[in-house]
Structure formats: structure tokens, C-alpha cells
Amino acid sequence: MVWRIALAHERNAALAEELYQEICFALWSSRDRIDAAEQPKAYVARIAMNQAISHVRREVKLPETVAVDVDAADDDAKSLDDTLHRLHQQERLLAAVQQLPLNWRQPVTLTLEGFKPAEIAYVMGTSANSISLRLSRARTTLRQLLNDDTDASTNPVGATA
Question: Which of 10, 39, 56, 78 is the most exposed place for a label (fewest CB within 10 A)?
Fold first, then answer.
């Protein structure tokens, strides 16, 4: 979960690793409060999100693209095609999520981690209704981004129908 939160905020793999380490240090420093928290998983997510926001503020430069490492040792071509297709879909989703405004990206990232709107509201310090609204708008935008990406890949610029 922490690694995916780091990736949602930082496209550059080296900077994402740096952010991940910052988050882990913050979590280690807060271990007593995490143990005492009413919702430890949500508290961990809140710390991770706050660290990510601080990191992004420090790293003002534009992020680079994410490189996906495909480690498919399976000789079966169908299995390899399935793996590549799944990785491509995940890469497209991550790229689309990274294009969202931060206040939409955070609840989407936590939703992908299995959090419910009420838990996300706790993590982000806002109301569940606000989170539901943000998620609704983010889903609409993600659908559009993913459809635009699909349309661009099936109809390259300059191609005639």
C-alpha cells in the first residue's frame, strides 16, 4: 500500500523509492501512535499521504514517465501476452491517475487500496460526502482519459479511415 501511494505521487522511479523511504521512516518514527490508533491502517495511510504531499512540494519539477519492468519467464506465449496486457492496463491506469488533481488522486489511490469513503475521509480529514463527490468526478475523468488514450492508440494522428 505504501509503495503504491509513493508511486501515485511520484512518477520517477528513483524519486518514488526516495519517497517510499521517507514514508517508512515516518512510519517507524510514529510506530507508538500507530499501535494506539483506533484505525491503524487508515492512520498509516494518512501518514503516507502527508509524507507524499510534503515530498511533492519539495520536488517541484515535473515527474518523468514510469518504466515498467516485465519479468515474465513463462515460455507460454498466451501467458506472456496476458501478462503484458495486464501490465499495460496497469501502466495506463497509473498514468491516468497521475494526471488527476491531487485532491482527486489521493482518494482514488486509497480506493484502489480497498479503503471505503468513510475511511478515506478519516485519512484526509474531510467528510465522506466530499470523498464520494471527488471519487465520482475522478472516475468520470479517468474514464475520459483512458478512452482518449485508447482512441489515440487506435487512430494515430494523420491516419485516414
Answer: 78
Provide the residue ranges of all domains of the chain, joining segments of one domain with +: 2-154
State how far the Cα of 127 lies from the Cα of 54, in Å rounded to an integer. Answer: 22
Is residue 100 a contact partner of residue 149, using CB atoms and an 8 Å limit?
Answer: no
DSSP string, 68-90: PP-------HHHHHHHHHHHHHH
User: What amino acid occupies position 125?
Assistant: G
Per-residue pLDDT tens for 111-158? Answer: 888 889 999 998 888 999 999 999 999 999 999 988 876 666 555 555
Q: How far apart are CA 77 and CA 72, in angstroms?
A: 10
